[in-house]
């Protein structure tokens, strides 16, 4: 079998159906879908066992620690696919997601592949991030500093999973990023990258914010409706009110998936060009802020270990204050990026002959 698709869920019934439909609509049909119930107490089991597609396999398991990484390994050890793809119960795939990933694996011989990340922001704007792991600098950041690639964009070979030691069962969170780094560490190949967005990632219900890059793009989309590509604005029908946005969006996409996704990818190309014109480098800004966060976390850990030494605590607090001031400078820089964008957009949008000086 070419593909095994891992879909873990914990009481995700409200959005699970739309996610499963987007998987079963793949143009690449050679797969099994492993739906892993991590101690579900809602009607997820009834829904999954009622599916008639023979490619669906249901694992109804007791609640595992944390995010249920142990249960994911239970299912994967019974998987049959040469390649593993990851799906979440509250995300969506384009119909050609597996097809494009498979072509990338075939063309490169890679063990690990990603498609372009794309969030749906709180304002209803699709935010495709300019993440490019082909760039050695971006890849180094991904392997050491921070991760902006949602798991729904990732695929890898089963052999690489086995070599990397399966999902980490000794961590409470961020186990996906830990696994990705382990796979890259044991691989002899650079990751393969699909430049198109093939997924829609939604903010998890337990999160209060998105990544800083997504927040910056969302701010731009809110301020400039005409400048922001219309193809990247989600316009849901009125009857969508009262249902999960994933369900409403999947219904809208399924009316003509090829046209819908072609339009979104055209919008992403337009956005890339407009951001380049404005001189905005979202990933670079993201890296700087994350770097300071990491240092502050190290200081906090040091305080905990040396709480009995007042002199050390005072020195650590002084260091933390210095980095907080640096972080404030970075946030001011972020605001200046937005102000620069506002100025440039106004200038570029003004009628000919009325444009203010650059």
From TrEMBL:
Keywords noted in UniProt: Coiled coil, Glycosyltransferase, Transferase
The UniProt record lists the keyword Cell membrane: no
Q: Which InterPro entries match?
A: Glyco_trans_2-like (IPR001173), Glycosyltransf_2 (IPR050834), Nucleotide-diphossugar_trans (IPR029044)
Parts forming coiled coils: 310-344
Domain Glycosyltransferase 2-like, by residue range, is 4-116
- Recorded E.C. number(s)? 2.4.-.-
Query: GO MF annotations for this entry?
Result: glycosyltransferase activity
UniProt cross-references to PANTHER family, sorted A to Z = GLYCOSYLTRANSFERASE, GLYCOSYLTRANSFERASE 2-LIKE DOMAIN-CONTAINING PROTEIN
Q: Supply the name of the protein.
A: Glycosyltransferase
Tell me which species this is from. Herbiconiux oxytropis
